[in-house]
Amino acid sequence: MKKVLILFFLLYSGYSFAQDLAYTRKTLATLTSPDFWGRGYTKNGMAKTADFLEKEFKALGLTAVNKQQFTFPVNSFPNEMKLKINGRTLTPGKDFIVHPASTGLKGKGELIERDSLHFLAQEQKLILTFQPKLTWSVATKVEDFTEVYIQKGALKEVPKNFEIAIENEFIPQFKAANVCGLVKGTEHPDSILVVTAHYDHLGGMGKDVYFPGANDNASGVSLLLNLAKHYAKNPQSYTIAFICFAAEEAGLIGSKYFTEQPLFELSHIRFLLNLDLVGTGDTGATVVNATQYPSAFRLLNEINDENKFLSKINPRGKAANSDHYFFTEKGVPAFFLYTQGGISAYHDVDDKAVTLPLTAYENLYKLILKFNAALMKSAKMN
């Protein structure tokens, strides 16, 4: 009978996690769908995502669910996105992207070769730059020129003339919101462990092209939601807070705002774990701030070595490359964890949910649960 119960428990545990993985795939598909349009600055993508996360937090059973609103300037490209070179129509996202700080431009003319990679139309203030890989970003200002990056190999001949129609819209006070929810601690509610992930991505470029942002960072949001689902059903001695940040891609704006206008005392945070780019894992993971908090990093590695969750966890020093940064600057101990290996899609139209391997997803989920449990049993890491 005892063996039967053990077998049932193991089967149930596996089934339970399989349900979580199905939830992850569903969440990834939702967040990367055209309805959310790259979770950015056109077609109401970011606002729709914030509403979705607020509803999801409440459905999972989190309390004190709050949308923390703020504004910031951003340059967007809501409509026309057309380019012809030597009479040939190029495909946005695949053959070319526009520099995110570019002003709009409509017209045609001749091109002057500056060198093999740069071509100019001085009167129209147009720059064409050939690149081996097209990656996009977000700009909070507008320049007085238009620069277009063209995929190397998209043209077989030297560019001689152009026809262009690109529309930009600068929004001085774009509205965004961080989304926060809690699972209150049963014994030490004023001691808080925080899990964060940014939900924004790059949005769309024109009316027909958007950037799905599966690994960056629908993967982190999906893992955060799975952890929220677990902790809502299994409250811990400490309070567990979950924050989905907006405007990370625009310069860590959402997390900076939170540290300046916190929804709970930053001094109550015992540790913060930021999840960004966690959809791979073939070659392990890296932890930013590992050298800042060596005791916590040693603890994480001890758990990983004992359980063989990830093939390797690499240490990295302090870096302002995700939403952990401004918390660290305020004295909050924090890690930024990202996985490595697998797909190379990043800030491009190919970062899709269907190609995201989730190689280390299950083991990373388990590692975080054990790491948080160990933190709650130990003193504050330093």
Automatic annotation (TrEMBL):
Pfam families documented for this protein: Peptidase_M28
Tagged with keyword Magnesium: no
Organism: Pedobacter insulae
InterPro entries (UniProt xref): M28_fam, Peptidase_M28
Domain of life where this protein originates: Bacteria
GO biological process, one term: proteolysis
Entry protein name: Peptidase family M28
Keyword Cell membrane found: no
GO molecular function term, any single one: metalloexopeptidase activity
SUPFAM superfamilies in UniProt: Zn-dependent exopeptidases
Domain Peptidase M28 span(s) in chain numbering: 178-371
